[in-house]
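Project outcomes to date are best conveyed with an example. Our students and postdoctoral researchers have been running inverse folding experiments weekly, and each run begins with a structure described purely in C-alpha cells. The record below, which covers 261 residues, was selected by the lab manager from last quarter's runs and is presented without edits.
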C-alpha cells in the first residue's frame, strides 16, 4: 500500500513538472469593429513571466514569420537569474520580430542594470509610454505600456499622453488589475496581461487567481496569459505554461459571431 501511495505522489509531481515546462503557443483570434481595416491583420507574440526559463527554440521556429511584433509582458527575470540568460531569451525573441517590453514586479529584482541590457539588445521599453504603429494607408495602432501596479509605478494617464485620438488602442500591463483604472474616455479596446500564472496550482476550479483566458470587462477585451515560467516552485497544475499568438482583425459582417465589443 505504501509504495502505491508513493508512486501516485511521484506521478502527480511528474505531471505538475511537465505542465510547468510545456512549450505551448495558444492562438487567439480577435475582431473589433474599430480596428483599422488597412492593417488587415496584426499579430502579437505575447510572452510573460519567463522568470527562470529559457524560451524553447521550437517555439521560435513555430512563430517565425507569423508575428508582427513580440510583446514581453513583464517578469522577464527575477532575483538570481544571470544576465546571460536574459540576453539569450531576448536574442531568441528578436528572431521572431521587434521586441517591446513592459516591467513586471520581479524585473526590479535584477542584480544588474536590466534597463541598459534591454536597450543594448535593441528592445523597445514601454515605461508609462506608447508607441504608434502606422499602416501604409496612414491608419494608426497605439501600443501602450504601463509599469507595474504592485510597485505603484503604473501611470496610465502619462502613458496615454500623445496617443492619437483615432488610433486603435492596446494596453499592456503586467498586472491585469489595471482594468480597474480604465474609463470610457481612455478608449482602450484590448488589455493584455500576465502576472497571475493562472493560479499556477489549481485544485479543480479553485486557485489563488483566475485561470488565464479571454473575457470582456465593461466593453474592453482582456486577455490574461497563464505565463511561461513559474515562481517559488517549478510546478503547475490546471494552469499549464503558455505563450500566445494574438491576431487582431477588423470586424466584417461574416465575423459577427466573433465580435467582442
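After processing, the design step wrote out the following sequence:
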Amino acid at each position: 500500500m505504501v509504495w502505491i501511495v508513493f508512486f501516485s505522489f511521484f506521478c502527480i509531481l511528474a505531471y505538475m513538472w511537465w505542465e510547468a515546462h510545456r512549450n505551448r503557443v495558444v492562438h487567439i483570434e480577435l475582431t473589433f469593429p474599430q480596428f483599422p481595416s488597412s492593417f488587415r491583420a496584426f499579430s502579437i507574440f505575447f510572452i510573460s513571466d519567463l522568470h527562470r526559463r529559457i524560451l524553447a527554440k521550437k517555439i521560435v521556429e513555430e512563430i517565425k514569420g507569423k508575428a508582427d511584433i513580440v510583446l514581453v509582458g513583464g517578469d522577464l527575470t527575477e532575483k538570481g537569474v544571470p544576465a546571460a540568460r536574459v540576453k539569450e531569451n531576448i536574442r531568441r525573441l528578436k528572431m521572431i520580430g521587434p521586441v517591446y517590453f513592459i516591467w513586471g514586479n520581479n524585473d526590479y529584482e535584477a542584480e544588474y542594470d536590466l534597463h541598459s541590457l534591454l536597450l543594448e539588445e535593441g528592445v523597445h521599453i514601454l515605461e508609462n509610454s506608447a508607441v504608434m504603429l502606422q499602416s501604409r494607408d496612414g491608419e494608426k495602432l497605439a501600443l501602450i505600456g504601463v509599469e507595474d501596479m504592485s510597485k505603484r509605478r503604473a501611470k496610465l494617464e502619462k502613458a496615454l499622453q500623445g496617443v492619437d485620438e483615432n488610433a486603435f488602442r492596446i494596453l499592456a500591463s503586467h498586472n491585469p488589475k489595471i482594468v480597474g483604472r480604465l474609463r470610457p474616455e481612455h478608449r482602450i479596446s484590448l488589455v493584455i496581461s500576465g502576472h497571475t500564472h493562472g493560479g499556477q496550482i489549481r485544485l479543480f476550479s479553485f486557485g489563488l487567481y483566475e485561470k488565464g483566458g479571454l473575457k470582456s470587462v465593461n466593453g474592453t477585451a482582456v486577455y490574461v496569459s497563464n505565463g511561461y515560467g513559474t515562481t517559488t516552485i517549478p510546478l503547475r497544475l490546471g494552469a499549464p505554461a503558455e505563450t500566445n499568438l494574438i491576431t487582431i482583425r477588423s470586424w466584417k459582417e461574416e465575423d459577427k459571431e466573433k465580435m467582442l465589443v
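The helical segments are 2-20, 57-63, 83-94, 114-120, 156-160. The longest strand covers residues 25-32. The training component of this project remains on track.
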